[in-house]
Amino acid sequence: xxxxxxxxxxxxxxxxxxxxxxxxxxxxxxxxxxxxxxxxxxxxxxxxxxxxxxxxxxxxxxxxxxxxxxxxxxxxxxxxxxxxxxxxxxxxxxxxxxxxxxxxxxxxxxxxxxxxxxxxxxxxxxxxxxxxxxxxxxxxxxxxxxxxxxxxxxxxxxxxxxxxxxxxxxxxxxxxxxxxxxxxxxxxxxxxxxxxxxxxxxxxxxxxxxxxxxxxxxxxxxxxxxxxxxxxxxxxxxxxxxxxxxxxxxxxxxxxxxxxxxxxxxxxxxxxxxxxxxxxxxxxxxxxxxxxxxxxxxxxxxxxxxxxxxxxxxxxxxxxxxxxxxxxxxxxxxxxxxxxxxxxxxxxxxxxxxxxxxxxxxxxxxxxxxxxxxxxxxxxxxxxxxxxxxxxxxxxxxxxxxxxxxxxxxxxxxxxxxxxxxxxxxxxxxxxxxxxxxxxxxxxxxxxxxxxxxxxxxxxxxxxxxxxxxxxxxxxxxxxxxxxxxxxxxxxxxxxxxxxxxxxxxxxxxxxxxxxxxxxxxxxxxxxxxxxxxxxxxxxxxxxxxxxxxxxxxxxxxxxxxxxxxxxxxxxxxxxxxxxxxxxxxxxxxxxxxxxxxxxxxxxxxxxxxxxxxxxxxxxxxxxxxxxxxxxxxxxxxxxxxxxxxxxxxxxxxxxxxxxxxxxxxxxxxxxxxxxxxxxxxxxxxxxxxxxxxxxxxxxxxxxxxxxxxxxxxxxxxxxxxxxxxxxxxxxxxxxxxxxxxxxxxxxxxxxxxxxxxxxxxxxxxxxxxxxxxxxxxxxxxxxxxxxxxxxxxxxxxxxxxxxxxxxxxxxxxxxxxxxxxxxxxxxxxx
Length: 831
Fold this sequence. Notes:
It contains 18 helices and 30 strands. The chain has about 850 residues and is of the alpha+beta class. One of its GO terms (cellular component) is nucleus.
């Protein structure tokens, strides 16, 4: 499971692994395919399935969630401010050493009152690492190996799915989060909609369902917990093209939960208004309970035919219970404002792709929120179709597509070529000389064109791609990249950071030179400087002609034009510096990595302490009754040993639940050792009582086997190659072992069960091994090989003897060609 794809959702994460048999979604320790996207900071961190359910509510102040909507945003970004109002934990700004707006960080307080500031990117990275450990543990179980270090099986090649509307800073933040926690080999940040399309198309492509003459157009509608995305993809043999994509991050499954949650809060206030000291909305824990009940009601009402759902909340607030019925008709009516947002992205996507609904072969819906009944009905009305296709797994399609892309990119797999044409969502502009009235760009034909900026990466452009602009400059100058003003029409908030990157390019001072600025949008969709080059045309002087050529040249006619000098283009790479808003320096990354290492060490110590406490507790309860029961260990302990162990066991149990509750690992290990010092000998006697008869029986059986062989072999000519000394050695060893067995059995017969045995099963097994080492080589001694007599030499003919008639010798087999051999044919009698 070295090659994986990861879908990081707002609420849940899904990881899939590529293998020889295809793609498999990996189950967590609770055998669930969905892993809560949460990290709880308490005395030790708990992640994913470890903080599911009531834990995420009871520890809401230290349980970090919704990282997907905060990562890569400035603290004062309108989107970040809106999201921070929804989360129950404390968010704080964290500055960058390079300057610029601060990013979002979380402030967590441990049980000792110590505060820790952790950037949200690192928290996201923790979830990614946790998912990797799930894959590593599953790989360890599947291999059946005794690998003690599960981290050795950690996935090496990753593709992580991200929303298509993520900005450059958000993409960099995801990669930085992975870098902080030590995730190796992130091959690509892949758009979620592209991953879904890949999962849909690649297997159909194998079945030859697509044609090159007429590409198959499919619309994918994805609604997750917090966003809604509409995509049109065209499929051809061996190729996938994203033709258009539009998203709305203001409508998702949680917004439909809010509809029910706000209704519950209102009804609760109506019923208990006079008894309440404050509104439920002011209590984060209360609202988490309400939203959990709202999500449950939403799922109940989603299937067709269900008309109402029962909502039951015990001790919701101030020891007050709340029970009410919620009707589906009311739910649909209250959700009308959300349903009205579904049409615009669909129409816009069709317009950009220059298609109509009739041009679509199917409309696939994915994402957990597409299970809502009236939402599907609304989508059908907008598209004017009778049915929506649900052939894909709504929760797993993204992770499966990411795993397939990971396999395509990984050198560990050999996969048939499959072309993916991506779709850049936001247009990127390159600007220069912003402090001047007018800049100069060198056009393709070499002429100077007045310009200060150009849209380098238009919306819908495939990536990775490199584009360039040529300028005339002397001395150091600045170039910047930012989102074009039109990006606000495609989901970018006007109040968000528009700047992407600033470069300061060091060109030579003096005469103006052509400077070629090469900018790339890499495989992750991140804008980077590929290179900055000074381009010069140099005239090359031809080498002096040879003597004969010179003479010929002298004979040339007068007035003939001289030969033109050759021109050579010289490119010189220029140095440049780069600054990006919301970017961490290497020193800051190292600092966060050290914090992560310290947190892991704390987690390890806490886990080892917990394991030791559980081991001690288990031993106390396991031995408490066994040591006193004659049917168990009681028969193998003296009364004094029983009394001593019972007292020590009770004292340790009392200590464990009082003073030892917060004891360190070494103290717990010491207490366990003291108990085992008393209980160990008794357990050993019981074990010996079970194992010793088996070992003795095996030994006696072996002795009898060799004695029988001695009796048979000495009178059998087949063993004539065995010497009398070897027979004697085997006989003596059998007698020696047999005598030892009878002696030990006599001693053991006079001993009680509650004292140490006269001999152990291990000693009997050692004797058995020694017997086999002596006798087995003799028993299996091979017979000597018979002597082979050398052939007698025939007398040589006399020198004057007539030569043999060669014609009398048998002639060689005739062949069609010299040296060719023919196979002999076997004669077969036909029945």
